[in-house]
Specification:
Radius of gyration: 24 Å
Mean pLDDT: 82
Low-confidence stretches: 1-9, 246-252
Strand content: 15-25%
Shape: globular
Largest sheet: 5 strands, antiparallel
Length: 254
């Protein structure tokens, strides 16, 4: 059987130097090996690029074998985006405006305006011409307000008392520790620790009938967002094993 190989486009050196600068600005310490993996180049190429950045005046601190960073306070000139990057930014901002609630929507509009100002004049028309749209939610605004309230509860670690209706139209009250929000298939999901189930659960926001704060919850090991992610991965592996005939218990629904 003949083998088919796909070759990825080679990143221009100027683009690669820009990416290295961005990585070094966004992290405390980055090794050449990490940069080489992210950029799909050799470590030798990274060392050469780091040297050239230093010679050009970029304040790179560090050394080979230890890691690199850029001194705090260094700013790049206005960003340059190609047409695909502009499309990605615009559709992302429009999705947040449509589905992210009033506060995030306003922040997205403000961020998009700043992006437009950062573009060269000849590329600003690309933003308005981007043919990618995200229709807004068709509701009375309550879901957007609920989204904002949950986002604030996550940031302040407030418990929430949910009056919830499940897929079988059964109503229940749950005290949960909100951990994260996820937008999946047109629906917002709340990832949380459920006190009633003493386990992690996901709740659809469109099934929350009422909601109120219910005191603070502690930052407890085993009940944090990374623990939720690990639990979901275990559940996914268990479901996969069950589908292949392995006798593995599944996680009960919310």
């Amino acid at each position: 059987m003949a083998r088919i190989f796909f070759s990825l486009p080679v990143m221009r050196r100027a683009d690669r130097l820009f990416q290295i600068t961005q990585y070094l600005r966004g992290r405390r310490l980055t090794t050449a090996r990490q940069l080489a993996q992210w950029l799909s180049v050799s470590e030798r190429t990274v060392y050469r690029d780091i040297r050239d950045l230093s010679l050009s005046g970029v304040p790179v601190d560090g050394e080979a074998g230890v890691g690199y960073r850029i001194k705090p306070g260094y700013d790049l000139p206005p960003l340059m985006f190609n047409s695909d990057e502009i499309d990605a930014l615009v559709i992302g901002m429009r999705m947040v405006q449509a589905w992210g609630g009033p506060q995030l929507g306003a922040a997205a509009a403000s961020a998009l305006a700043k992006v437009v100002l950062a573009l060269p004049r000849e590329k600003r028309d690309f933003v308005e011409a981007t043919p990618l749209f995200a229709p807004a939610m068709q509701d009375d605004g309550s879901q957007g307000e609920r989204l904002e309230a949950i986002r604030q509860a996550i940031n302040s670690r407030h418990k929430l008392l949910l009056h919830y209706t499940d897929a079988q139209q059964r109503s229940s009250q749950r005290v949960v520790w909100p951990l994260a929000l996820a937008f999946f298939g047109g629906t917002w999901l709340l990832a949380a620790w459920c006190e009633r189930r003493e386990d992690f659960r996901s709740f659809r926001l469109d099934r929350v009938q009422q909601m109120s704060e219910h005191g603070h919850y502690p930052d407890r090991n085993g009940r944090r967002l990374p623990d939720f992610v690990r639990a979901m991965r275990r559940q996914a592996r268990a479901s996969s094993a069950t589908s292949t005939g392995t006798d593995t218990p599944s996680t009960p629904p919310a």
